[in-house]
Amino acid sequence: MKPRMKLLRSLILRPLRRDLPRTLLTVLSVALGVAVVVAIDLAGDAATGSFRSSMETLAGKTDLEITANGGVDERWIAALAALPVDARFSPVIETQAVLAGVGSVALYGLDLLNLAGAPNGLPRVAVSEALARALPVRPSAGTVLTLNLAGRPQRCEVAQLTPAGAAEFVAMDIADAQQVLARYGKLDRIDVSAAPGQDFAALEATVRHTLPAAYLVTLPGARNQENQRMLRAFRWNLRVLSYISLVVGAFLIYNTISISVVRRRAEIGILRAAGAARWMVLWMFLAEALLFGLTGGLLGLALGRILAAATVRLIAGTVNALYTTSRPAPVVLTWAETWLALATGAVVALVSAFAPAREAIQVPPTEAMSRGAHEHRARLAWKRALAWSAGFAAAAWASSQAGPWDGYPVGGYLAALLSVAAAATATPATVLAVNRATRTLVRRKVEGLLAARSLQSSLSRTSVVVAALATAIAMMASVGIMVGSFRQTVALWLDVQLRADLYVRAAAPAAAGVNPPLPPDIGAVLSAIPGVAAVDLFHALDLHYAGERATLGAGNLDVVRRYGRLRFLPGQNRDAILRSLSAGDGPNRAIVSEPFAIKHHIRAGDRLTIPIGPHMVALRVAGVYYEYSSSQGFVVVDNATLRRYLPGQPATNAAVYLAPGADAQKVRRQIQLRTAGMGISVAPNSELRRAAIEIFDRTFAITWALEAVALVVAMLGAANSLLALVLDRRREIGLLRYLGASPAQIRGMILTEAGLFGLLAAILGLALGFALSLLLIFVVNRQSFGWTIQFHPPGLLLAAALAAVWSVTLLAALYPARVAARLVPAEVVHEE
Amino acid sequence: MPAPRLELRGVSKSYANGGPPVEVLHEISLTAAAGSITALVGRSGCGKTTLLNLAGAMDFPTAGEVLIEGRSTSSLSESQLTALRRRRVGFVFQFFQLLPTLTVLENVELPLLLSRAPRSAGTALDRLRWVGLEDKAASLPYQLSGGQMQRVAVARALVHAPDLLIADEPTGNLDTTSGDQVLALLRESAARFGAAVLMATHSAEAAAIAGVRVSLKDGRIVAIDRG
Q1: Contact B49/A at CB under 8 A
Q2: Global pTM?
């Protein structure tokens, strides 16, 4: 065996085996950190990676896609087919249908004449093999399926099963689709396939030239890219959150290697005196860290794969609720992901171990320094650390002032990281200050005195553990404050926004980006019901603006003005703005939501040109209003403006305002009676509000799960470090037994120490958490999503969380306390 | 006649450590009366420290009995043993064994704090005055010389006026002057506080202050010298 390996075995591996519980705790900390990163990445890929249209397998390759908001007029098919190009132009309708036992699936209407015209009058459909397998009863040719289309049941006959890999869809002929969906004359898009030999550039130019300027002609991947772009802030923020556990884990590796170095100082001295080069010592400790990193990485990979399967539905739920429809794809662990996990574990371990390993090589051969001297030096260094802390804090402030970088809140995240560094370097001073402040208090009980002094005496190590715990608490507190503030802001906004008494929409499952139409005469039906004072018909259409997706909305803004309470940014007159939009004369005007304004740098008074149907329409922005339902944003015009460019566009939602004294329940029943068979749902104000808050809570569920993992890692770290402290001070603990300490007193001392750890971490964590929450609310969130969140720290929740963390820290100390109480004094006091 | 402070009756001690048992003490019998000083002498590894641990109720014999104030240590529960150590036994070690994080006064006070005795600081200061280190009360151990540290250790061992003072090589790590000071304190402990002092030592000077010198070899008593 090579000498280096021999040294590694005797100086690193053997002690690791001897301290097996601590070794396992460290590996587990790294593993959990890596697992969370892997899980979020894999689950994010699976939940958002399934946008690629599954119809490619059915309709063949597509070279260009033609879309327009409000739909593509089907007459363009004929015009395009007449062009002197060698290409196929296929009409497509793409929507969602609900199938019992499966949920939402893609429904395509395509030029599939072979499916048209069933003898029994039912539309004939092709069902993908994967969907057939997913159905409770596997269908075959002739089976009748009932599709739920925007609330209306539609029976169809299965004509064939189509092999299409993992894609799950139902397809029918375009004419049948238009009929069952009541979309006469309208297509969702036209797919263009060039024949071999056709000049693609010429084809694209000809098609663009032929179509109205407002029509979008894009490459097939564009929608997928657009979706990914839309989700990037969401995924990026999730990914950053997943790194919290790694940061906490890094503190713990730093701590473990520090302990390793301190404990083997004498051995390092001897080794160096015996001729070992510095780099050999450095290599040994880095190898120890690498071992933790790689083992933890490997374990984390396996754990991450399991966690991903559990998380994917949660992420997909958020994507569906807030962004766009997607069905989660299977979680796939790739080689790239495997290497990334291992590399993450290794890099985090090496980086966090470098400082203590470097310290190890600076031990002069003649000096086998004692822990006391090392800690004494650490005690003297607190002022320098505090100066560093001030430097980091100043840098954090400067960084928080920077604008977004390529749409990412890089400055905000850097500021958060610098704030963590500032808190970490302020830890020794805080430990000393709290120790000083509680000096009289802790003296009342000998356990308190011993615990407080022990914290102070192992300042460097105490500080790292406190910093790790504080970071986890701060992350939890900051996200708690951010989510709490956001929730409160949304709740207040809902109070303002949802002023109507009843809301009417198509009875389809709610999903972002899916706006099924209401029947054309719904406005008249609703207005005629006794007790109804006003109806605001709202139209939601897809909008593509500056390469980003948004929603074009149109409503009866005079009704909104009279009955609603839409809030505009400070300094903007709500009444005047809404009056100017609903006035029939003058230029076209629009209002935009705050996220849209921020994303596209638009202010009141600016001009905006957007596609409405086949037209490019110039609008003057009359105002910017607060809106929290979509980070993509809204451009809202009056119904009259929309009708001017898209006559006959069906409404997607209706808000019903009741006359004073009208009974909401009675009116709701009347609406249900008069719209029976139309496939619509009527919800009272309270139900909508509850649903919105439910979506909100579901969206942030994953955030809490990530926080919990970070806390578990910190707890493992606390247990690990306390165990190390116990083992390191076993002679002192043995001595206490000689001096008359009972096992209960020893246990009490360790638990008090843990309590102090928790208290210090809570103080620091809360302070850091408040700073981070300000960054999250006013920098990260604003730059990522464009929302103004009011600061509403959830006091009770924070207090409960801190109490929980403190209790769990004590729980984590039970095992080390037990070890301490069971030490055999006669053995440990006399051992050298 | 009052019972001796410490009595060892045919005490043997062996350790197994996974292999066949190794006997480190063999049928040791001795007594220590109040105010007496007993020195255990012998080479390293002859069983002195093991005997001290048994005498201080920090370990238990494999055979025989250790009686402190007439009570067998083997019959006592963990809490009774703790109470016994708190009230009746004081320890002095070769390497001082002061807690580096506590001040000199707190180190001396520690046994009283552990037993929740009242007016502990005043008593501790008295003891510190007795060993001549009152002015070092607020110092930390690392600020003291070796001799001073051992004097603090003696003050700590006697702070609760124990019946039995156990000292393991108390001068083993000290220069002659400091060693003499510590020995003087031990002598005074027996004379003034009436403690039975049981001391393990390599030093002839230390052994010379003892009324009884017990020579150990390979775990057996080979000679007892009274005089």
Answers
A1: yes
A2: 0.74
Cβ distance of A456 and B111 shorter than 8 Å: no
Measure in Å the smallest separation between the Cα of B47 and chain A Cα atoms. 13
State the fold for domain B34-59+77-226: Rossmann fold (3.40.50)
Beta pairing partners, A653? A505, A538
Instruction: Check CB contact of A344 with chain B, cutoff 8 Å.
Output: no
CA-nearest residue to A822 within chain B is: B78
* Cβ contact B82–A829 (<8 Å): no
Q: Quote the mean pLDDT of chain A.
A: 83
The answer to whether A687 and A444 have CB atoms below 8 angstroms apart is no
Report pLDDT for A53: 47
pLDDT band, very low/low/confident/very high, at A370 (cuts 50, 70, 90): very low
* Chain B positions in Cβ-Cβ contact with residue A380 (cut-off 8 Å): none
List all residues 6 or more positions away from A437 whose beta carbon is below 8 Å from its beta carbon: none
Instruction: Find out whether A607 and A618 touch, Cβ atoms under 8 Å.
Output: yes
| Contact in structure between B171 and B121 (CB atoms under 8 Å) | no
* Contact between A736 and B142 using a beta-carbon 8 Å cutoff: no
Strand stretches in B18-136, DSSP E: 22-32, 37-41, 63-68, 71-72, 89-92
Kindly tell me the sign of the dihedral angle through the C-alpha atoms of A794, A434, A370, A752.
negative
pLDDT digits (tens, 9 = 90+) for A247-287: 777 877 777 777 777 677 777 777 777 777 778 778 888 88
Residue B189 distance to chain A (closest CA, Å): 17
In this structure, are residues A739 and B91 in contact, taking their beta carbons and an 8 Å threshold? yes
A260 near A268, Cβ under 8 Å? no
- B78 vs A449, A743, A829: nearest CB: A743
A446 touches chain B (CB under 8 A): yes
CB-nearest partner of A739 from B49, B78, B111: B111
Does position A217 have pLDDT exceeding 60, yes or no? yes
Contact predicate B216/B202, CB 8 Å: no
Burial B5-20 (b: 16+ CB within 10 A, else e): bbbbbebbbbeeeeee
- The Cα of B100 is separated from the nearest Cα of chain A by a number of Å equal to 8
Give per-residue pLDDT as tens, A726-758.
Answer: 877 888 899 899 888 999 999 999 998 888 888
CB < 8 Å to B59, chain A = 826
The string of pLDDT tens digits covering residues A330-339 is 777 888 888 9
Q: Does B53 touch chain A (CB under 8 A)?
A: yes
- Contact A311/A43 with Cβ under 8 angstroms? yes
Calculate mean pLDDT across residues A336-361.
83
Select from A446, A739, A824 the residue whose CB has the most chain B CBs within 10 Å, as the one to mutate to test that interface. Answer: A739
Tens-place pLDDT, residues B168-198: 988 888 888 888 888 998 898 888 888 899 9
Structure tokens at B203: 């030093």
Which chain A residues are closer than 8 Å to B100 by Cβ? 372, 457
Give the largest CA-CA distance in chain A: 102
Residue that wins the pLDDT comparison between B18 and A87 = A87
Longest dimension (CA), chain B: 53
Q: What is the residue-wise DSSP string for B99-129?
A: -TTS-HHHHHHHHHHHTT-TTHHHHHHHHHH
Q: Do B142 and A376 touch (CB under 8 A)?
A: yes
> Would you call B100 an interface residue with chain A, using a CB distance cutoff of 8 Å?
yes
Q: Which amino acid is at A821?
A: A
Average pLDDT over residues A686-699: 82
Question: B115 — contact with chain A (CB < 8 Å)?
Answer: yes
Over 60: is that where the pLDDT of B78 sits? yes
In this structure, the number of other CB atoms found within 10 A of the CB of residue A638 comes to: 24
Residues 732-761, chain A: which have Cβ within 8 Å of B? 732, 735-743, 745
